[in-house]
TrEMBL record:
Keywords: DNA damage, DNA repair, DNA-binding, Glycosidase, Hydrolase, Lyase, Metal-binding, Multifunctional enzyme, Zinc, Zinc-finger. Gene3D superfamilies: 1.10.8.50, MutM-like, N-terminal. Coiled coil: none annotated. Belongs to the FPG family. GO terms for molecular function: 8-oxo-7,8-dihydroguanine DNA N-glycosylase activity; damaged DNA binding; DNA-(apurinic or apyrimidinic site) endonuclease activity; lyase activity; zinc ion binding. Its cofactor is Zn(2+). This is Formamidopyrimidine/5-formyluracil/ 5-hydroxymethyluracil DNA glycosylase. InterPro entries: FPG_cat, FPG_N, H2TH_FPG, Ribosomal_uS13-like_H2TH, Znf_DNA_glyclase/AP_lyase, Znf_FPG/IleRS. One of its GO terms (biological process) is base-excision repair. It comes from Candidatus Methanofastidiosum methylothiophilum.
Length: 275
């Protein structure tokens, strides 16, 4: 699992409330960060001085990313996050395990512990614009640009793709990942492997309605019940489809778990027949 739009919105808001106006006085890197550095997902080892002792002026979310802007026009880009952030007002006792800790001028800390990977990257505005992922983020379901017409246009331009792949194209539809896509497709009664070309206009309209309903519900509930916020609290959105649901709540059929496009899909073979 990882942070998707509802979790990003919640954590970004908490960061705005606690961090805007503060200065980072120290960035503590542990050996745990080395794998992300080697993968090119973090440059904190080489560029951390670029954001130290300059005020955070703005924090905002976009898709699966959170951007921290600094007074000197540099940014800290946090994205594709699988892990946990923790905020501490004043403490001499940080978690026993973490990848990086940001210390602020008021003696508060923000730590991050990765459970798989994440981008933790310092960039200039131009580098952000040119970044393969952070610079190419499409509209999210909570944004006005994500209209039904826009969604149908994206689908028509990607007819050869399976629907699961299309819903995960962050450059066109940002913020959705495996957790919410599983729930959206179950709610829509659509098999994750169904090619877009095989879906009717009614199918696509149903998917759009499910996206809006499920994502708005998850946002209102503070994200998924399996993900933590800055204060070690989970959201209240309970996944519809997961390893904890053995049978379909509609028809009683045994739920199937299958690797689809590199991640686990849960679906009802009776309600979500492949088209």
């Amino acid at each position: 699992m990882g942070f998707e739009l509802p979790e990003i919105l919640k954590i970004s808001k908490q960061m705005q409330e606690k961090l805007v106006g503060k200065k980072i006085t120290n960035i503590i890197l542990t050996d745990r960060l080395n794998s992300m550095i080697k993968q090119g997902m973090s440059n904190l080892d080489k560029r951390k001085e670029e954001i130290i002792n300059t005020n955070i002026t703005r924090i905002y979310p976009k898709g699966k990313w959170i951007f921290l802007e600094f007074h000197n026009d540099n940014l800290l880009m946090l994205g594709e996050i699988i892990g946990k952030f923790s905020y501490f007002e004043k403490t001499n006792s940080l978690p026993s395990k973490y990848h990086v800790a940001f210390q602020f001028s008021d003696e508060s800390y923000l730590t991050f512990q990765s459970s798989l990977y994440a981008f933790l990257t310092i960039a200039t505005r131009e580098e952000k614009r040119m970044h393969r992922y952070a610079g190419n983020i499409g509209p999210s379901p909570n944004e006005p640009d994500f209209s039904q017409d826009y969604f149908l246009k994206v689908m028509s331009q990607n007819e050869k793709k399976p629907i699961k792949a299309a819903l995960n194209m962050q450059d066109l539809i940002s913020g959705l990942g495996n957790v919410y896509i599983n729930d959206i497709l179950y709610d829509s009664k659509i098999h994750p492997k169904s090619k877009i070309s095989s879906l009717t206009s009614n199918d696509l309209n149903t998917i759009y309605i499910s996206i809006i309903r499920i994502i708005n519900s998850a946002i209102e509930l503070g994200g998924c019940s399996e993900e933590f916020d800055l204060y070690d609290l989970t959201g209240k959105y309970n996944r519809i489809m997961s390893k904890n649901r053995p049978h379909c709540s509609r028809c009683g059929t045994k739920i199937v778990k299958e690797n689809v496009l590199g991640s686990s899909s849960y679906y009802c073979p009776n309600c979500q027949k492949i088209q």
